[in-house]
Amino acid sequence: MAQRAADREWAEHAGERLAGAGYRRGGARTAVIDLLGEQHCALSALDIEEALRHRDRSVGRATVYRVLDELERLGVVARFELGHGIARYEAVRRDAGHHHDHLVCDDCGEVTPFRDEELERALTRVSERVAFVVDEHEVVLHGRCGDCRAEDHVPGVSPVARARPTSA
Known about the structure:
2 domains; alpha+beta; 6 strands; about 45% helix; three-stranded antiparallel sheet; Arc Repressor Mutant, subunit A; about 170 residues; three-stranded mixed sheet
């Protein structure tokens, strides 16, 4: 229940920022904001367009990109380049408990959020050691998800052996 309240709070904040910047509160903007407010990891503009279509909220791709650009300029949405040439967007939440980093599968493009307190402490130690104040950070780990690894698993044959070209 507390999470839903935080989601609504972010959506209200984003709507107020848009209104304060002179943007009208239209159906498309509200639909994109509401969707982003419910998400807890980055989505691409295509993901957003598809999710809205499934909710019977048809919003054109150009409109989705325009709203995302507006929200990013206002600092309520962050844009991430997580690989595969596709930008992803997520709500900027100021509460420390929401921060997460990302795992990106380089085969299928799946993006998985993760939190690791030990990693956060290590980053703090690095910043202290080099006398650098870190305002924010984004850790993106690239690799292969369990499903993609499982697809390539052949009992008794190493991945290196499978990757070698066979002679004709």
